[in-house]
Write a structure and sequence with these properties.
299 residues; mainly alpha; three-stranded mixed sheet
């Protein structure tokens, strides 16, 4: 089950990241309005989505930390995964709005941005803050095995690339190419879309109950348990190392007693939960009429 200390650690990281994102948003909006750059304002919108992500993540972590109950016998861990999916949804909205603004600018709907040293300096500072946040959050996500922290760190990392692209675009505008701002805004939108796609690759398999581990890997892992003659009907779901569940049938010598069969099943469960990283395992015992001369014992 979900560790309370881990949940508190994840929440501390998210609160810290939220405060950093709010400071970055304020700075980017100020320089975006001052310069009139849609790329900068798009970058500010992306950072705003970062803050919304943190709020969603905090709510998701709170829900995911609840113990199993009658309506959710497998626990609430998927709420954390749903939080990651919400992040991808926010990214898609940002991508659309940014692209629409860029097209309007290319059509001549607005004047080119004004670029000065203060604007560039503020953007460089905010980029440094985002880079530090992304590194800290990514390391914490791997250490705490938190899908939502890893997803949010990926989003913040995309924000670093977004800001870098915006700075490059503003330098080109300053050099005399005003169209660089909307074109860079479109490039930023593509980077955001890529970040959302990567999050979907991690969240959708968990939500649709894709297998956590290849069945053959589980079979080879289990047949080394003493007394197991074969393994069939292997099913798994969830995310290994997080909340993964498995169900399987082990074949034992038909001459063994029921108590001996249960001891073998318990040994298989302990191995999969202790060494295999599963949160819960259900093992069914099937007697085999004749022992197959040690078949499957070596693994």
């Amino acid at each position: 089950m979900r560790n309370a200390a881990r949940t508190r650690a994840v929440r501390r990281v998210l609160w810290s990241v939220l405060f950093a994102n709010l400071a970055v948003i304020a700075a980017k909006i100020a320089v975006g309005l001052r310069s009139g750059s849609i790329a900068v304002l798009g970058d500010a919108a992306h950072s705003t989505v970062d803050a919304l992500n943190n709020v969603v993540a905090l709510a998701a972590i709170r829900a995911a930390a609840q113990p199993p109950d009658e309506e959710h016998p497998y626990g609430h861990s998927k709420f954390e995964t749903l939080g990651g999916l919400a992040i991808a949804a926010f990214l898609s909205i940002t991508c659309f709005e940014l692209t629409a603004s860029a097209i309007g600018r290319l059509a001549g709907a607005a004047a080119p941005p004004r670029v000065d040293s203060l604007t560039l300096t503020v953007l460089i500072v905010t980029m440094g803050v985002n880079l530090a946040v992304a590194l800290v959050e990514s390391r914490a996500g791997r250490r705490l095995d938190s899908l939502i922290l890893v997803a949010d760190a990926r989003h913040t990392g995309a924000d670093v690339l977004v800001t870098l692209s915006v700075i490059g675009g503003l330098l080109l505008v300053r050099a005399g190419w005003p169209a660089a701002d909307p074109w860079l805004a479109i490039a930023v939108a593509l980077l955001i879309a890529r970040s959302g796609y990567q999050i979907l690759l991690h969240t959708i398999p968990v939500l649709v109950d894709s297998k956590a581990v290849e069945a053959e890997r589980i079979r080879l892992f289990v047949v080394s348990v003493e007394g197991v003659l074969g393994v069939t009907d292997i099913r798994s779901r969830g995310r290994l190392g997080g909340e993964a569940f498995a169900e399987l049938t082990v074949e034992v010598d038909g001459s063994r007693t029921v108590e001996e069969g249960h001891r073998i099943a318990d040994a298989v469960e302990r191995k999969l939960e202790g060494e295999g990283g599963f949160a819960a395992v259900v093992v069914h015992v099937e007697p085999r009429a004749e022992a197959a001369g040690g078949e499957g014992q070596a693994g």
